[in-house]
Amino acid sequence: MRQTIKGKYVYEFSSANKPIASVKLGEIVDIETIDCYGGHLKTEKDLITDFPHLKVNPATGPIYIEDVKRGDVLEIIIKKIELDSAGVMSTRPGGGLLGDYIREAQTRILKIENDMVILNNTMTFPVNKMIGVIGVAPLNEAIPTSTPGEHGGNMDTKDITEGNTLYLPVFQTGALLALGDLHASMGDGELNGTGVEIGGKVTLQINKKENVELFTPIVETDSHILIIKSATEFRTAVREAMIEGIRLLQKEHNLEFADAYRMISAKGDIRVSQLVNPKITVRLMLPKCLVSI
């Protein structure tokens, strides 16, 4: 019988967190999550301003991955994401990039039917499900689940979805993986501060990628390698993603820096993942014909 992991959550990635489950390499597991508000916004009368001390982004875990140690790389195959029947979007004064236009808090409950999100009686839009928060325990001090970094965390990258593979560097024995903050839909930038926040169940297969040195999260799609970097400044995040892309190109093709720099400019695409978390997250997309993981 396949293991289902649920019911216990953390609000920071930390080596001090005690595992709630143990998973063998190669095992397929189901992980149940709750929405980023912890299920507190149940109706449209429930406002985010009613919960001034609310902890956000509960992440199911941590999960101890057997036979994994510092310096290893997790290979996380996202096999399936199943969503609850309704999500929630909250707006509030100061929330997102145009929060100064919002005068009062509002909650909208959005039903999910036939892979469509129902905004109102006249507008629907397709589901594009994704994992907002997924990461491992960092090397040093604890990092809140609201914050992205080299450990993963709140990357809010819409390519972290079913059918793709996420690679994470490991900093602690057992990795201490945790995840949550699913979205039924979210555009690049997460511009108002939320996606369609929702609970659900994620099916993962967790492996160890051998003979790879990794310093930051990477997503592999059918066509591209996506290098994910987060920083307090946009330009810094882009520069760091470029440096990692150049490192991978140099390693694979024995290029001098200038030629790898040329290739990044000729074939690399920068995408914004999110602009609203404590650190900005970007991803550098490189075709798999040029670079592999």
Automatic annotation (TrEMBL):
A GO molecular-function annotation:
hydrolase activity, acting on carbon-nitrogen (but not peptide) bonds, in linear amides
Source domain of life is Bacteria
| Annotated transmembrane regions | none
**PANTHER family in UniProt:** FORMAMIDASE C869.04-RELATED
Q: What is this protein called?
A: Acetamidase
